[in-house]
Specification:
The protein has a single domain, classed as Serine Threonine Protein Phosphatase 5, Tetratricopeptide repeat. It is globular. It is mainly alpha-helical. The two termini are about 35 Å apart. Helices cover about 50% and strands about 5% of the residues. A hairpin with a 6-residue loop joins strand 4 and strand 5. The protein has a two-stranded antiparallel ribbon. Strands 2-6 form a two-stranded antiparallel sheet. A two-stranded antiparallel sheet has the order 4-5. One of its GO terms (cellular component) is cell outer membrane. Belongs to the SusD family.
Length: about 450
């Protein structure tokens, strides 16, 4: 994680974070480490930093379950688990599904460990911030999980072997209530910014932005509007003049970045492999944008195209996350993964204003700010005279502006158009794929079903 590295964490601490085969497969050593380590403010802060390290492991699997699932990309070689996700044919034994589940619950475990030992923090300011960080990451993890699986287990304290009730799935409505509560606490507790050595830790703006996204997903447009206006009025973030610079390896954590998962090459495993897998040399010989997405880039949209994509037609590959400085292993990139950025804030705000129907001029103004940065002409009310026309324009702009950043599948789900969009996509690229409605949720991993002896029920259809 760049500057907030965990390289020097003692070996003893690593034990409690490494039991990730399944979040239910708990080891007694975990309790021994807790009892002997988290006794001081510094030791609890080490646990906080280890939460961010856990997020590093979630990202590759989330890309596989969201961006790969969407109509943005397809693997060059339709083989194995990649093909199963792409073709909507995965089973409960799918490795990508299992990896996302395991790493997500390992992240939740680290959050809950920190929250348990907050009373040992003697500095009140740090204590508040640590709680905010743990609850922000817990909310982010629960949010992604509930969108992909529906009802899920929701452990809010460290899980012991005999805590069978926590293994049961909780209603998604209850999960969303917890997510909102966690983010409201995080917003209140987190600082506006961190010193340079701690860039990458969650901030007040990150909590406000994620909370707005949660409200938008729940179609609570009024609450989303309030949260987004806090981010905008803070003036803590801005659009960079250059779209390409947002993703430049030399400008990470720039003014457009609200929250990112940080990586570092040649740092004892803190690098990432998704940059490699996006490329034509990756695990499936690259991830490729197909004709329906490629056709959405106009000739005037050259900067966004060349920043996001290399090549054309059948030789087009994702190029948004290169790592030119990586001279070692191709799976040890130091390129960060951007989770929240200001362009998304403006597009969400445009969407909220349009859905509320109270300010079409302001809705277009925020949409056009994104288009202006890309070098495109602004929309007028004459071109987009009604809510439906503006909604489609916002949806299309999100697809291009945020391409390959794990937004598209979540957007399709919350708009309620995932089935229709995917059917059109497969027709457009000339492939016959049956997209069943039950596959809008992923299966609960088979290992979890086996271990819990029926306490966790499988999603319908699997």
């Amino acid at each position: 994680m760049k500057r907030i590295s965990l390289i020097n964490i003692v070996t003893l601490l690593l034990v409690w974070g490494c039991n990730t085969e399944t979040f239910l497969d708990l080891k007694p050593e975990s309790s021994l480490v807790e009892q002997n380590y988290f006794k001081t403010t510094g030791e609890v802060e080490t646990g906080v930093l280890n939460i961010y390290s856990a997020l590093q492991l979630v990202t590759p699997a989330e890309i596989q379950l969201t961006e790969l699932r969407s109509d943005n990309i397809s693997p060059a070689n339709l083989e194995g688990e990649w093909a199963a996700i792409e073709n909507f044919s995965e089973t409960a034994s799918n490795d990508f599904v299992n990896t996302f589940w395991v790493t997500s619950y390992a992240t939740l475990a680290r959050c809950n460990i920190v929250l348990k030992y907050l009373p040992n923090v003697t500095d009140a300011t740090k204590k508040a911030a640590f709680e905010g960080e743990a609850k922000f990451v817990r909310a982010l993890t629960l949010f992604n999980s509930v969108r992909l699986f529906g009802d899920i287990p929701m452990p809010l304290v460290p899980v012991l072997v005999n805590d069978t009730e926590v293994f049961k799935r909780v209603s998604k409505d209850v999960v969303y209530e917890q997510i909102i509560a966690d983010l409201q606490l995080a917003e209140a507790n987190l600082p506006v910014s961190w010193e340079a050595a701690s860039l990458g830790r969650a901030t007040k703006g990150a909590a406000q932005t994620l909370l707005a996204k949660v409200y938008l997903t729940k179609k609570d447009y009024a609450s989303a509007k309030t949260s987004l206006e806090k981010v905008i009025s803070s003036k803590s973030y801005s659009l960079l003049a250059s779209y390409a610079n947002v993703f430049s390896s030399g400008m990470e954590m720039n003014n457009e970045i609200i929250f990112a998962i940080r990586y570092r090459s040649s740092a004892n495993g803190e690098g990432q492999g998704f940059s490699y897998d996006f490329s034509k040399d990756g695990a499936t010989r690259g991830l490729q944008p197909k004709t329906d997405l490629l056709s959405m880039y106009s000739s005037s949209d050259a900067v966004r195209y060349t920043t996001s994509i290399t090549g054309t037609g059948a030789t087009a590959f994702v190029n948004k996350f290169p790592d030119a400085s990586n001279s070692g292993s191709r799976r040890d990139s130091g390129t960060d993964w951007i989770v929240l950025r200001y362009a998304d804030v403006l597009l969400m705000y445009s969407e909220v204003l349009n859905e509320l129907g109270t300010s079409p001029t302001d809705a277009l103004s925020n949409l056009n700010a994104i288009r202006k940065r890309a070098g495109l002409e602004s929309y007028t009310l004459e071109q987009l005279p009604d809510q439906t026309a503006r909604r489609l324009a916002i949806q299309n702009e999100r697809r291009v502006e945020l391409a390959f950043e794990n937004y598209r599948w979540y957007d399709l789900l919350r708009w309620g158009i995932a089935l229709d969009a995917m059917k059109k996509h497969f027709v457009a690229i000339g492939r016959s794929v049956n997209v069943a409605d039950f596959r809008l949720l992923y299966p609960i991993p088979q290992r979890e079903l086996d271990i819990t002896n029926g306490l966790i029920a499988q999603n319908p259809g699997y």
